[in-house]
Batch of 2 targets.
Target 1
Amino acid sequence: MEMIPLIGELLIGIIILAGALLGVLSAFGLIRLPDVYLRSHAATKSATLGVLLILTGAFLYFAFYLDHISAKLLLGIVFVFITGPVAGHLNARAAYRSGVALWERSVQDDLKPALKKSRKEKH
Amino acid sequence: MSLQILLNLIIAFVWMFLNNEWSFLSFTVGYIIGIILIGLLRRFWPYDFYMLKVWAVIKLLLLFLKELMISSFTVIGQIIRPKLAIRPGIFAYTTELESDWEITVLSCLICLTPGTLTLDIAKNGRTLYIHAMDIEDAEIISLQIKQTFEKAIMEVTR
């Protein structure tokens, strides 16, 4: 009987710790990676998953130990999950359109000719 | 499809009326009976049974979660590698999906797959420009997009 709360606590602890670690690692990625597009890779994926894990851990803790089903946390999970990738996409798109250069070791750029063509058609 | 859901709700309410019991439990029982009835009578509908769509949506959500897991661990793996061994680039990908809704879901999925990020969508709405962390994988990535994501999205929308 005493084992179950212990295992539950351990599990929730591991979930929250994993989320925090993912957050730290993606912050490290922001420092390490060379250009804005690669940085937004790190920021959209790992940070989103980190926040999701922390929120899930908090939700499980409230549900099992305080007998409180927090619908706000569930809504928060859904919102972060939907808006994370969209924010990453919009940041990268705005950066590209305003002419931020790719990293010099990038090998391929299909967007540049297409963008040039569509701008020429507009004028 | 919405007509089937409405009919299912009506069956659930009729069940509650028949039992004269107004609780969540009897609503659930009535709803399950409605699902079974509509499933049995599905050949009279001009379109598919709606639970198939619900199942496809659940599968798509699970795919989202799985891709999010895989991709964040791939990105972490690239970040903590002592020497940066990535060759980023942008490649164009032509999709077969048509409506705005489908393409939005597809580009969200691409943003969450390992090493890819949607950068721009062409005016015609058919070509996606994707920034990949490792351009050597571009072929594999586009094959994967074609085979798994587009198929999963099409199952939901048509």
Note: The two ends of chain B are 11 Å apart (CA to CA).
Target 2
Amino acid sequence: MTGPATINTTSGCGPAQPLRQRGQHEVFCGLTSIIWLHRKMQDAFFLIVGSRTCAHLMQSAAGVMIFAEPRFATAIIDERDLAGMADMHDELDKVVARLLARRPDIRLLVLVGSCPSEVIKLDLAKAAERQCALYGPRVRCLHYSGSGIETTFTQGEDNFLAALVQELPEEPAGAGPSLLVAGALADVVEDQFRRIFEALGIGPVGFLPPRASTALPHVGPNTRLLLAQPFLGETAKALERRGARHLLAPFPLGEEGTTAWLKAAADAFGVEPGRFAAITGPGRARAKLAVGNLRTELEGKRVFLFPDSQIEPSVARFLHRELGCDIVEIGTPFLHRHHLAGEFELLPDNVFVSEGQDVDRQLDRCRAQKPDLVVCGMGLANPLEAEGIATKWSIELVFTPVQGYEQAGDLAELFMRPFARRQRLKVSA
Amino acid sequence: MQLTVWTYEGPPHVGAMRIAASMRGVHFLLHAPQGDTYADLLFTMIERRSTRPPVTYTTFQARDLGSDTAEIFKTACREAVERFRPDALLVGASCTAELIQDNPGGLAAALNLDIPVINLELPSYQKKENWGAAETFYRLVRAFAPAPAGPAPARAPGRLCNILGPTSLGFRHRDDVTEVRKLVESLGITVNAVAPLGAGVADLARLPEADFNIVLYPEIAGVAAEWLKRNHGQPFVAVPPIGALATGDFVEAVAAAAGIDGQDVPAARSRLPWYSRSVDSTYLTGKRVFIFGDATHAVAAARIASRELGFTLCGLGTYSREFAREVRAAAAEHGIEALISDDHLAVEEAIVAAQPELVLGTQMERHVAKRLRIPCAVISSPVHVQDFPARYSPQMGIEGANVIFDSWVHPLMMGLEEHLLHMFREDFEFNDAAQPSHLPQATPAAGAPDREMATAAGPLIEVPKALAWADDAERELKKIPFFVRGKARRNTERFASETGVRTITLETLYDAKAHFSR
């Protein structure tokens, strides 16, 4: 049920045999991904069907920092719904009617399932279908689950994109090869990649999710799929079911990751090696320069990563290969071996990986190892700082543009900043 | 189902968590799905607490539902007790765990733990955060200060008191306790125990030793205080000392409970009365203010606003349904009807309808006020990180009144600037589209927005179709500064429809002004 009490860290616990743990998971549920998804797709509205806890989570985790009405809300299930005094589907219809009257600009309504709605088995598929019939075709309606019992943090995006896949138009008959990049990226990163693909002669290129629900990319047997994020297992499966061919690659973090990622697409589209080198050359040089400037500060630092977003193995690879850090433990909420194979090839064979969590035991391991830097969530960061351990809160890796050449320096900077700050501050808490 | 953009309170288990996190040696085992640990960051980020809250979550997942979630609970329970060695264990369920009905109380009892276990029934689909906190505190008090076998002893007034109610994540509770303790001690009264903030279970056991209780936050400690009164015969004072007048009343009530003569009461006073009386504050007279928050802070704010600052109340409400009666009574004193609602959209509608010049509310009203471009100050939970300041900033007692004067007046446009705006409307820098010049400047929106609420709030205010504004009247209306323009438009239209005028002219505008004397 729980991990072994004593862990032999020298025995080489590579990706072949990760430590699997069951216990308290100190992680977000998938609902949290709405925080960035609602900004990425501007005409979408995310309506969580859940409890007051779900609404409270959303506003605590993000909402109270947002001083405007966001494009997400919660339909709170109450006693009357549970007691069967009110028909839940009628109630939901009323909530949706009120919402759409208030926000006539919504073009995509997304019903998001939560733990309570999943446990009582509220049929959101049926509800979504009904809203489509009522408000379509002007308003599309989708549903997916972001519940904590099924999803961890970024898996919410995975489920959303997987649901969006069924809405994608079929590629036109006789279409040539096209590229589809899946995973929400910062607008500036998306634009950079678009320019590089264009220069390489790769195209047409579609991004999932697109910035508007009215501009969905097409998919079909000639679509080549590149994942921009490591947490998209379900999305990849859904796209493959529609004929897309997945190009396996390390993820575009750092100079090395970005080059390998672009190379996977270049090879699939038959780009000449010379042309590839010429186009990516300046970006690679800039990334190496920016990261190199920070390497002296981070070389030899021992880093411990707690599970959060599934980005941890890619980040560990970047820290290890480009900044010379030693990786003490890579924690990940879920280990997609196939998608991450490219990352683990670049990591030492004996790197210690844990999948899942028993937070108290993991904290024991962490304290025993005395790492120089801990990458962890906000529930652990300040307490660890108070114990004298430097931390980098992991949520920033999801909320900051970090992919691609031009952001490699920024990514390194994120890990340098806790050390720089400690050096500057002459007051002790 | 209720459409909720923002919620004023969290679920009841968050209230329970606040009690556990306030105390020493109390651990909370919460049966909850993966993800509910988000609540930890309320404490570690918003309150900047330096330790993890004493909460262990079972964080079950979907695959566990098929097997034995009860077994997961029991394992977590055993391990938490072993690891943290608390003096007492609270057990409860979050909203999802409530649905699967594993009975945490029964499961914990079956483990035969060597520490007291308190089972919490927290109906998540019915009750909310403050209720959860009150219930948890009450259960703890009952458990550790058990009722004596016989009837409650009669007590004579005495100078030993408890301070009840302050908690972790409470709005300014940290500094309120310091201020109230100082105030109480200046009367020659000794504080026996403060709870739940900083208390251990041994302190709860000592509660009956005090002669009386002071309830700072009835939302949290009201139920426990009633119980202590019934079972231990302890009277309690529940006059939250928020504001200069209330602080005076509080001192009087506490002195009476302690059997202290009038002569012993110190004449300590806040600066608020003089600041408010000084001529620079004259322009505050009759400013229309809308107040919303928890019942304690809303009622206190209403009294300060009207009696101590000379504002006019145009709205008063609370999300604390348990205290609706008190808030209704306070509103009736001001000739208005109280808004009792936890629907943030209903509060927004009420603010738009009331057209206030200042909003005193929670973090949520800050959102609304920003959208409507009305000055706003925060007076109550829910609040965010900036309302857990480093500096000493109580709301209660002498210093609390000083803090309140500064923070409520600050968002308003200062006197001279307001005068000049009335006189000269077309200044290229100092005009309606600009922020008050003592506040940080936001970049002016493109196209010089009309600051009138009717525009900012979109279609929420509809001009009756039968009414039309003549061009010259419309132009004249724009010469009225934005913070009173909405009200002027309202009054004029009301006057027009009452007198049967179809087109509002310059004359109508001034007729209405004379009619309403404003």
Note: The radius of gyration of chain B is 26 Å.
